[in-house]
Amino acid sequence: MLTLLEKFIQKIEEYNLIEENDRILVAVSGGVDSSVLLNLLEKVQDYFKFSIFCATVDHGIRKESKEEVKFVYNMAQSLNVECFIKEFDVPLYAKENKLSIEEAARKLRYKFLNELAEKINANKIATAHNLNDLAETVLFRLARGTGPFGIYGMKPRNGNIIRPLLFFERKEIEQFATENKIPFVIDKTNFDTKYTRNFIRHKIIPIFKEINPLFEQAVLRFVENVWELDSFVEAKLNVETFEFEGRIFFRVPKDEYVLVEFIRRKTMEHFGRAPDKEKLDRLKKNLYKTSFKISFWGNYGVEISYGYGVLGKFMEHMNYEYSMDCQNNVNFGPFVVKFGNNGIIFKKMDITIRNYRFGDKTKGGKKLKEIFVEKKVPSFIRRIIPVFVDEDGYVFYIPNVFLDRDYLAKEENGIAIKVEMKGGFWF
């Protein structure tokens, strides 16, 4: 039978959690799970050839927390691991942002961990979630009404987060700590059933264990199957995307299921939560429309128009205006206007580049709004695309949409203009 250390190495290799030259930031609270994790990683450091750092947080919730932070710092020092400390006033943050204490602590903690990882050039963050935590998460999410790919909540590796202890029950970890004389602190709030997770841990799971004493192992088998299915679906979501200033532009896939699952996953990945099923159902019901918006939360949601979409904060008109000097490249959101030898050659004149405005017309009298509809320009692109206007206020050029050939010139006596959209999206 494998020892916990041997099994720990096996799972790291099986799920490719650690690679040579990794720089891993370990989140340590001082509890048995995170204390064992730090010690295990220190033991396998030479085997996998990586560097470790320690981070601990005083959430400002309990009077014992300052002593626990000091405990973690001393333990890290004894292992010759650099330790970073951060203090937060979680109760105040929770009150100001209308969050539960648990959610506020999690948000602040992960914000700190990610910022610190970037600062010290750590490419991975290790947390000490174990199999019991996984079982609690499954029950919690099931009770909240999650879908099949949201039920597990945690993976051994998710982005830059790794969870090497996810396959181990808490009793195994406690036994390893005892056998190897690894010190740890006990957080008394872990027994307070007013917190949802503690209620599940101490009241609900014992009932399931009456049905199946190996309940946690049963959950693991179920979740491993979902992980495999999740990986299969992820590979099928081959959607063309481009990201700019916190928004995700994408070409709408033909398959309705692929679209909805793509939006759900991208929202989780970038914004930390998934849209409600009711919002996703509304999205499916609106797919017959040419253009529409679905708000997920306030000013955040998805907009789809003429086969293209954007996910994030809804886009407003940019309201810009620029008189060309033909010297420097100019950025208009994701669009770049370049001057030089390449591009379309226009007559030399006073040219203004600005956003679309109601009532814009061409010299021939055609309304710009009509051109946008004819050319099937996505509604959100209309708000940001550069519009070229002559000295009389007539629109003569919109990249990839409209070109008045009366304004063209020969190379030797004209101005070369080229417009690109970052990521090649839509163009």
Describe the overall structure.
- This protein is α+β, with helices and mostly antiparallel strands.
- 39% of the residues lie in helices and 21% in strands.
- The strands form four sheets. A six-stranded mixed beta sheet has the order 3-2-1-4-6-5, with helices on both faces. A five-stranded antiparallel beta sheet has the order 7-8-11-10-9, with helices on one face. It has a five-stranded antiparallel beta sheet with strand order 12-16-17-18-19, with no helix packed on it.
- Its EC number is 6.3.4.19.
- Residues 351-419 form the Lysidine-tRNA(Ile) synthetase C-terminal domain.
Q: What is the topology?
A:
Blueprint: H1 4-14, E1 23-27, H2 32-48, E2 51-58, H3 65-78, E3 83-87, H4 90-96, H5 101-119, E4 124-126, H6 131-144, E5 157-158, E6 161-162, H7 170-179, H8 196-211, H9 215-236, E7 241-244, E8 247-251, H10 256-271, H11 277-285, E9 291-297, E10 300-305, E11 308-313, E12 321-323, E13 330-332, E14 335-340, E15 344-347, E16 352-354, H12 368-374, H13 379-382, E17 387-389, E18 395-398, E19 402-403, E20 414-421
Helix pairs in contact: 2-7, 4-5, 6-8, 6-9
EC number: 6.3.4.19
Pfam families: ATP_bind_3, TilS_C
Keywords: ATP-binding, Cytoplasm, Ligase, Nucleotide-binding, tRNA processing
Average pLDDT:
90
Main sheet specs: 6 strands, mixed
Helix content: 25-40%
* CATH topology (fold) name of the largest domain: Rossmann fold
What's the overall geometry?
elongated
Number of helical segments with 4 or more residues: 13
The side-by-side strand order for the widest beta sheet comes to: 3-2-1-4-6-5
- Taking pLDDT < 50 over at least 5 consecutive residues as the criterion, the unreliable ranges are none
Specify the CATH homologous superfamily of the largest domain. HUPs
End-to-end Cα distance: 60 Å
Strand content: 15-25%
